[in-house]
Amino acid sequence: MGKKIFSGVQPTGNLHLGNYLGAIKNFVKLNNEDQNECVFCVVDLHAITVAQNPKKLKDNIYETIATFIACGIDPKKSIIFNQSSVSAHSETAWILSCVARMGWLNRMTQFKEKAGKDKEKASIGLYSYPVLMAADILLYDTTHVPVGDDQKQHLELCRDIAQKFNNDFNADNFFKIPEPLIQKEFSRIMSLRDGTKKMSKSELSDLSRINLTDDKEQIINKIKKAKTDTLQLPSASADLEKRPEAKNLMGIYSSLMDVSLEDTINKFSGKNFSEFKENLSQVMVDKIYPISLEIKKLLREKKYLDKILLEGTQKADKIASEKVKKIQELVGF
Ligand code: AMP
Ligand code: TRP
């Protein structure tokens, strides 16, 4: 049987290799499996949980859609739309925020990381962010949610909310309980400057990440400057445990080549980093640079992107508005 897929990406700029290998590459695979019904959402309501420049936000929405398509998601097969255009998302988030418990949200590690030391100054939206994410997923009777490793806890919360709603309103199976789809390997790509930190859009140093819009020279330069250690490449994966940078770079290579980490270790065992980096640069340019070119081309075709958004919004709105009506009935509105 086919799967019902939903996933979201925030339009916060600087989409990078981690977004691609951790999430979008998997979206494309699911999009290409015949029986699946896929919905891919640009989650602008999530983006404003931290301050955004309105003009930049608009540009970033276009860039995220262009990235989806440039990476290989087919808008004829999958629904692509922008979250704020479908009002059922905000409406459902409010209802679910009355189902979710403070104690559950207090455990969310991403909030703790993002709010930093001064929690008092974080927005309420940043705190209740995972409830909106649950609304996104549950509105579409989603069975599977492809995400990177950092979203695992939010998915568990979504399952708890769905179960509690079904219980509270005596509605067995009303919300489907979704499964996360997190790749077994390479689901967490680390910074090129520090192998213990996640590759991130908001990291100050651009050298820490490969952006999906980088040109050839930038890619080559960033790989050249990527942090390594002074040892030779190992002959067994256990030897990578205390070498986060080597582990990350070899993982990136494996994921781009669609081979296992073992294969990559066997290929480069005993070699030095300069030789490995040359190979890594080459695959990166082969796989990422065409995406970068395609994103830039699509961004010059705003009318085409607007058409895709409009069609996607209509399809998403049809599904979500029917579901929200049933939610409201169950609640007693
Ligand atoms: P975001 O940019 O936070 O909206 O994330 C979009 C998708 O990319 C989510 O599924 C994340 O889990 C995934 N993602 C973000 N950063 C990384 C990373 N460094 N490694 C792997 N996946 C990531
Ligand atoms: N919270 C996700 C992230 O930051 C983005 C997101 C929003 C999402 N809604 C979603 C992912 C629904 C999967 C399903 O990466």
Provide keyphrases for this structure.
333 residues; mainly alpha; Rossmann fold; Tyrosyl-Transfer RNA Synthetase; 13 helices; globular; binds adenosine monophosphate
Description:
The model has no long low-confidence stretch (mean pLDDT 97). The protein has helices at residues 17-32, 44-47, 54-71, 88-97, 102-106, 109-115, 124-138, 152-168, 216-225, 244-257, 261-268, 273-299, 302-331, and strands spanning 4-9, 37-42, 79-82, 144-146, 179-181. The strands form two sheets. Strands 1-2-3 form a three-stranded parallel β-sheet, sandwiched between helices. The two termini are 35 Å apart. Helix 8 (152-168) links the parallel strand 4 and strand 5. The chain folds into two domains: 4-186 and 302-331, HUPs (Rossmann fold, 3-Layer(aba) Sandwich); 206-297, Orthogonal Bundle (Tyrosyl-Transfer RNA Synthetase). The chain is mainly α and 333 residues long. Helix 7 crosses helix 8 (152-168). It is built from 13 helices and five strands. 54% of the residues lie in helices and 7% in strands. The structure holds adenosine monophosphate and tryptophan. Adenosine monophosphate binds at residues 9-10, 18-19, 22-23, 147-148, 150-151, 187-189, 198-199, 201.
Major sheet summary line: 3 strands, parallel
Give the integer mean of the pLDDT values: 97
Strand order of the largest sheet: 1-2-3
| Bound ligands, named by name, code or SMILES | adenosine monophosphate, tryptophan
| Count of distinct structural domains | 2
Would you identify the CATH architecture of the largest domain?
A: 3-Layer(aba) Sandwich
Indicate the low-confidence ranges by residue numbers: none
Q: According to CATH, what is the topology of the largest domain? A: Rossmann fold
**SS field, number of helical segments:** 13
